[in-house]
Amino acid sequence: MEQTNVSVTTYLIISGISDSPTIRLIIFIVALLIYLLTLGGNLTVLLLIATDHQLHTPMYFFLANLSVLDISCSTITLHKILLSFMTGNKFVSVGGCMVQIFIFFSMSCNELLILTAMSYDRYVAICNPLNYHMIMNRKICALLSALCWVLSSLENLPTFLAFYKLSCYKSNIINHFFCDAVPVIKLTCSDTTFLELYMLSVGGFIAGMPRFVLTFISYVFIISVILKIPSSIGRHKAFYTCSSHITVVILFYTTLVFQYLRPYSLANLDSNKVSSLFNTALVPMLNPLIYSLKNKDVTRALKERFFKFSQN
Fold first, then answer.
1. Does the pLDDT of residue 104 top 70, yes or no?
2. SS3 category, 11
3. Tell me, what DSSP letter sits at residue 227?
4. pLDDT digit string, tens, across residues 49-87
5. Taking Cα atoms as reference points, which of 305, 306, 294, 280 lies closest to residue 72?
C-alpha cells in the first residue's frame, strides 16, 4: 500500500484504533454509546434553551453554541469508526481528509472562543451586574457569536492550504481513527517545518494563549469580587454560577495542551489516539452533563419538561 506521490495517492485509509475484530466491536459499541449520549445530551440542552424563556439569557445563548460545536466535533471524528465497522469502508479521499482536519480545527478553535466569550459574560454578570443586560444585549451576543465562527475559520485557512499542498506520502494508511494533524504530518514525506511552526505558533501562542489569558484575567477579577462578598451564602452562590464553566475550561484546555502542544516528531501515535478519543468523544459528552448537573436553571427546565411529558 506504499504511495509516494500525491498524483497517485488519491485516497487514504483510516486504520482505526485496533485490527482485532473483538476490540473493534468493543470500540464500536463504546463509540456508538458515547456518540448517542453526546447527541442526546446536547440536543436536550438545545431544546431546553429554545423552549424555556427563562433560559433566553446570554450565558445559555453561548451554551447553545457550545452544544452545536460538541455535536459537530463528535460527528466529524467518530463517524468513521461507526461507518467503517458497519460497512467495512475505511477509505477517504485526500481532499476529504484535509477538509476533515480543517473542520475539526475550526470547531476546536471556535470552542475556545466561545468559552472565552462565556468567561466575559460571567465577568460582566458578577463584576458589573447593574449594567449586565445593557452590556450583554442580544446584538452584542449575536455579534460575538458570529465573530467566533468567522474568526475560527479564517485562522485555520492557512493550515488547510498547507495540508492540501502536501506533495507525497510514505504510505496511504493513517494510523488513527480520523484525519488528524499529527498522523498526517507523520505520514507525509514533504517538508512540514512551516506547517508545524505555524500550527504551534498560531494555534498555541497567537490563538490559544490570548484566549486562555483573557479567560484567566476574567476569573481573577471574578474571584476578587466574590471574595469581597460579606455573606458566605452570597459567595457560594456567585461561585456556583461559574463552576460549570470553570470545569469545562479546565477539561478542554488540559486535553488540547496534552494532545497538540508538543513536537510532532516526538508524538506517539498510539497514545495520541487515546488522548484524541478522550478529547473528541468524552469531552463533548461530558459538557452537557456538567452544565446540567451543576446548573439549577437547566435542571429545573429539564424537570419541568419531563413532568409535562409524563403528564401527557
1. yes
2. strand
3. H
4. 998 888 889 999 999 999 999 999 889 988 888 888 888
5. 280
Q: What's the Cα-to-Cα distance from 143 to each of 58, 69, 117, 118, 140, rounded to whole Å?
A: 12, 17, 11, 14, 5
Cell of 41: 445530551
Query: What is the rounded distance in angstroms from the CA atom of residue 7 to the CA atom of residue 10?
Result: 7
Burial (CB < 10 A; 0-12, 13-18, 19+), residue 265, is exposed
Question: Residue 129: helix, strand or coil by DSSP?
Answer: helix
Q: Yes or no: say if 115 and 252 are a contact pair by the CB < 8 Å rule.
A: yes
> Using CA atoms, how far apart are residues 64 and 186, in angstroms rounded to an integer?
36
The candidate with the shortest Cα–Cα distance to 171, out of 285, 10, 4, is 4
Phi first, then psi, for residue 126 (nearest 5°) are -95, -40
Burial of 173 per CB tally in 10 Å (0-12, 13-18, 19+) = middle
Do residues 1 and 187 lie in contact, with contact meaning Cβ atoms separated by under 8 Å? no
Distance CA 56, CA 63 (A): 11
Pairwise CA distance, residues 151 & 162, whole Å: 18
Q: Which residue has the cell 458566605?
A: 232
**Who's near 234: CB < 8 A, 6+ residues apart?**
none
Q: What is the DSSP letter of 188?
A: B
Say if residues 6 and 166 touch (Cβ distance below 8 Å): yes
Dist. CA 110–CA 144, nearest whole Å: 11
pTM: 0.85
